[in-house]
Specification:
The protein is mainly beta. Helices cover 11% and strands 31% of the residues. The protein contains two helices and five strands.
Amino acid sequence: NKNSNDVKWARKGKTYSATVLSTTTDNILVQLSTGEQADLPVGHLTDFPSLEQPLLLLALGSSIPKVLVLSKRQKKIVVTSKPSLLGWMESNPDKKQITDFEVGNLVPGYIKDFQNY
């Protein structure tokens, strides 16, 4: 029985389609194609932070064609829809855990802020 309290179906590192259930200022609650609910943090909506707030206007019931499961802890699943992460994971299927990486590997990222030290 696949229900929202059971996180054994979605697998970390795999992609699924999702449907928007609700939104807050910093998160979108989605239902994965597995039937499970997952959190899509605003910072994982897009590669471009300036587009995050407009994307929060996604209508309830809107479909997100592809999200990637980043983590599963207890009964919580966190996903991303960042195109750079989705593309990188598809082209590097062998990189699933921190131990799969080596010094010198290139991975997608962005500068979120500058700090004076």
